[in-house]
Fold this sequence. Notes:
The protein is α+β, with helices and mostly antiparallel strands. The strands form four sheets. Strands 1-2-7-4 form a four-stranded antiparallel beta sheet, sandwiched between helices. The chain has a three-stranded mixed beta sheet with strand order 10-3-11. A two-stranded antiparallel ribbon has the order 5-6. The N and C termini lie far apart (58 Å). The protein has two domains: 2-74 and 93-181, no CATH class; 185-336, no CATH class. The longest helix has 20 residues, at 95-114. Helix 1 (2-11) crosses helix 5. Helix content is 37%, strand content 13%. Bound molecules: iron/sulfur cluster (SF4) (2 copies).
Amino acid sequence: MDKLRRAAWEAGLDAVSVTHVKPQTYLKEFMQEAQDEGRYSQFAAPDIDLRITPTKAFPKAKSIITAAVAYRTVDPGTAPKMHGTISRSAWGRDYHKVLKEAFTRLITFLQEEYGVREWLIAVDDTPLVERALSAQSGLAIIGPNCAAYVQPYGSWVFLGELLVDVELEPSSPENTGPPCDKCDLRCVKACPTNALIGPGLIDARRCLSYLTQKTGTFPEELRDRLGSRLWGCDTCQHVCPANRAAQKSRHSDFEPIVGPHFPLMELLGLTKNEYQQIFGETSIAWRGKNVLQRNACIVLGNQRAEEALPLLKQTAAGHPSEVVREAAQWAIKRITRPSNVPGA
Ligand code: SF4
Ligand code: SF4
């Protein structure tokens, strides 16, 4: 394991662990309940058996190497007016690419040392339950905020897996996790929408991180809770004492390209090409500009940004997306409504 850890570190992976490929039947009831109660994320594959059976993703799999890459760089500070906050995970280069490149660098070692011949790299692009695999392997401990903690990096880590066709010795759990016993569920209490309905239980329909990425109309009853969040939400991670002391990332890939804050008026005026030029290297690019422009309108409304009214009116009248036009109309109403009106 020490050899594997050293090779993984040199390849760019900050921590690795190994686990078996048996079906994660212990997750089934929990996931079924989330599905039955409508809390299940639309980004996840609906077939639970597919998700909890690693060999369905890669039939030749005999072991899984789970890995974490730390991404904490600068500290975000507060968003200036007319700016929206971008989640720390999206500031730098797209982590999917960074992790895949690191796993690929590790392959040569695995071929020479263990005789690996076939493999599958998974970074958010298979049905696998990645956080659960990281916990099962001892790489991470899942906090009450549902985030994966890999000390000394806190929960500022990206996860990925490498499924290989040889049997490797599973790791024994080593992670210490966050100091939850001394903290009184600060993360759960800080959630602005009560999306954390209990320790380790999240209702995706209320989670701002999920909602800022989802297409379609943003739920009206949660728009004021969005505050200045343009993309993602780090609140339940920011308040965690383990994260304040977390070790910074050694990877220059995660230095901000577009974060921590982005000017909203500029965002609203971007064409598709300009959007790609600015966000193309980041993990935000996949979602396309309309979702971000929808969020930008809501944040301008929340900031009661009168300076933005002419641009919002133009957006409400002429944006090609109905969802963005509706968000701009909502923002105009919010900015022009007297602040003593209930719900204003
Ligand atoms: S905020 Fe507190 S309860 Fe939540 S994960 Fe961190 S230490 Fe645990
Ligand atoms: S990411 Fe934000 S909205 Fe989602 S559970 Fe955490 S604090 Fe709540």
